[in-house]
Specification:
This protein has about 140 residues and is mostly helical. It contains six helices and no strands. The protein has one domain. Helix 2 runs antiparallel to helix 6. It starts with a helix and ends with a helix.
């Protein structure tokens, strides 16, 4: 009898426990989070392309500055962004997946739009000039 009482008590205690990650809350809105995440991905890809084209060493300080400028553009900070990312990854993964799918669709749309609008330059630009112009457009849009 005592054995069953102990088991029942343990089950009741575990049953009353709050769900994992219940205390997590997003620090910024879903729209702002998605827009910031999109710009962070764009900035990182442009920076990585710059490294490949110029064959120089990766400089973490440059990457940090680019990311900080993205946070400044969206009027948020890294703490709020990563707290929100934690929320979506741990407490609401389905919403996070939808956000990522929306970003992929937006990127596809941007690629298709840019393919039709690429002007033919009269003078060839160096790869580093192209990349710097791209970073500037991303951060100033």
């Amino acid at each position: 009898m005592q054995k069953y009482t102990k088991i029942a008590l343990i089950l009741i205690l575990f049953g009353c426990e709050s769900p994992p990650y219940a205390e997590l809350k997003p620090a910024i809105s879903q729209e702002k989070f998605a827009a910031t995440l999109l710009d962070l991905h764009l900035a990182e890809s442009v920076k990585n392309a710059d490294i490949v084209y110029q064959f120089h060493q990766f400089n973490p300080t440059e990457k940090k500055q680019i990311f900080l400028s993205v946070f400044k553009k969206h009027q948020t900070d890294s703490a709020a962004f990563f707290k929100t990312m934690d929320y979506y990854q741990k407490a609401n993964p389905k919403a996070y997946e939808q956000i990522l799918q929306g970003i992929v669709l937006k990127l596809d749309s941007m690629i298709n739009q840019n393919k039709s609008q690429i002007p033919t330059p009269t003078t060839p630009l160096s790869d580093s000039t192209k990349l710097r112009e791209t970073i500037s457009r991303i951060l100033n849009r």
